[in-house]
Amino acid sequence: MYDNDTNRDSSKYPVHKHTVETTMYDNDTNRDSSKYPVHKHTVEATIYTKIIASSKIIPKLEEESSSKKRMCLYASPDEFTDVVLEVQDHKFYFYRLLLCRASPVFKAMLHSDFKEKDTGTILLHHRPFQDIYDMLRFLDPEVNFIIDIRAAFRLIPVADEFGVTRLRDVCVNYLLQHMDHVSTASDIMNCIFVAERHHHPSLMKAAIGRASRFSSAPYHFHISKLKATEFYQQLQPSTVIELLETKLMDYRSYN
Fold first, then answer.
1. Higher pLDDT residue, 220 or 236?
2. Using CA atoms, how far apart are residues 198 and 28, in angstroms rounded to an integer?
3. Terminal alpha carbon distance of the chain
4. CA distances in angstroms from 124 to 128, 132, 163, listed in the order given
5. Staple 103 to which of 34, 112, 120, 162, CB 3.0 to 4.6 Å?
6. How far apart are CA 19 and CA 44, in angstroms?
7. CB atoms closer than 10 angstroms to residue 108
8. Residue 145: alpha-carbon gap to chain centroid
9. Does residue 123 have a pLDDT over 50?
10. How far is it, in rounded angstroms, from Cα 169 to Cα 137?
């Protein structure tokens, strides 16, 4: 037997041999073995299975397939959807009640004298598709939305823009709890930048503390790696001073 193919080269594909013992009777079935001879035959089956170059292929394919399925969550209306969010070239069909309960900004759009109240359509072309999609999945009680570091960075600005405080708090708390897992210079500076831009002092303090512990290399090497990130140049001077002073104090305490 071959796995979805024939005449495979056994030198390239692992061989699994299985021995199957069968009991066969001569020209009849269910005979009494005490009266009729029993002939046992051993069948050896050789099965070739395809070698997968990397075990990472399987999770990646599953992830891509799962991602495509998730993209279809709000792609079409159902009997309960009553608002449309247009993001770039996508339309999301969602629920006014969920938007209004979570966001004072959406509530004002849909219940005050704004055009969205009459049209039932909210234009959000200034926001990336994935950010709005993840926010909707977070608001949907039927979806088990799982946050991670990258999503937290992206969603804090979205949550602040639309006043979705629950989403903002979840993202900030996640970063605070997983600060030791923010391991690259770019991610550390991104965390400081997000905290500064969106006024989260507790996150700022934790991120600067993480920056001071970043790498065991000499002080000047620490700073050069942090300065090389795109986020360093966008920080306010006061934040840069606090960062440098904290790192210098931490460096001196260990030397």
1. 236
2. 83
3. 67
4. 9, 8, 15
5. 162
6. 5
7. 15
8. 9
9. yes
10. 16
